[in-house]
Amino acid sequence: MRILGVTEDSRFLAGGRIAFIKLMKALAYAGNSVTVLSSTGATVGVVNPEPARTIRIDVPQARIIGPLLFVLKMFFYLPRQISQVEIILVNSGYTVYVVAVVGKLLRRKVVVLQHDVLGLDYLQSIASTTSRKYTSILRWITIYTPLKIVDGVLCISDSTMKRLRRMGYSGPAYVVGNVVG
Amino acid sequence: MRVISVSRLEPSKRPYDFLAVAQRVCQKRGPVEFIWVGDGTIKMKVVEAAKKMGLETVKFVGKLSEEAKDQLMRQSDVYVSTSESEGFALTIGEAFLAQLPVVVYDLPIYSEVYDDFPLKAKRFDVDEFSDKVVVALDRPDWLQARVTQAKRFVEQNYSYLSVGLRATKALNEILGLR
For residues A173 and A164, what is the distance between their CA atoms, to the nearest angstrom? Predict the structure, then answer.
């Protein structure tokens, strides 16, 4: 199977992004042809995705500008990459919307890797400044609303899948776990 | 002796319970080093609380590279997590790979992901949690078989190949190939 994996990255190291890259590496180990599309960021050099192929889009390591430029540049990269694969796996995050829409336009199945399922109240409680409270709302919307249009969800645990069901997601969902080590 | 925890310093990880456990364990069996790896939004408050409690053996080392974290894990005796919520608890798997006994609160996620291998204390009962940590520190031979089995369990279920095959099967089903 030819798979395109898409994940955001930033200057902050996040466990979910490392887990995603490890999953893509795992898919390549299982005999699939895998390409990872991401931005420059903290995971570079932390996890070696080989035998998966990697494309890093160069963006500034800044809080708003970085993600914004990544999304804009993805509109140029995605069509070419998507045309070469059968299925797209996108990491839970702000890229899900863009990937889901472009994937649907190009008639490819889009699947999301879901880590923890966090309620908006929790995201608000950990936001330390007013601007972070607003970005947490935006983040919640961009992560959870596109689940209505994707073709499936891979969950890291049964608990994640149950929380997702409680949130109202009724599409195909599978527990795959995480790579440890 | 050293007890380690790797997590973000956030309220859901209950770092104040970690301090309470450190206090009780040190009272019971003398100085034991307690190390927390990871940063978070409440780091300053937790560090301040540790100072007020006079916990000189508790250290917050911040975020470490994967290599430094793994090395510190291998040089520890017990892994603990006082978290009240987890999606997978990856670091517990890493602790098992480092052949450490693990003490956690009794959350469903741990049985789901790691079977019965972690030592579980009643939810948010720091006294019972501390007792389990003392057992893990004092009776490593008694736990050796359990830790060895846990390592094997993680290697079998969460290796690159096993996760890759599960994910491939799921993607094939979504594509309608199987």
Answer: 9
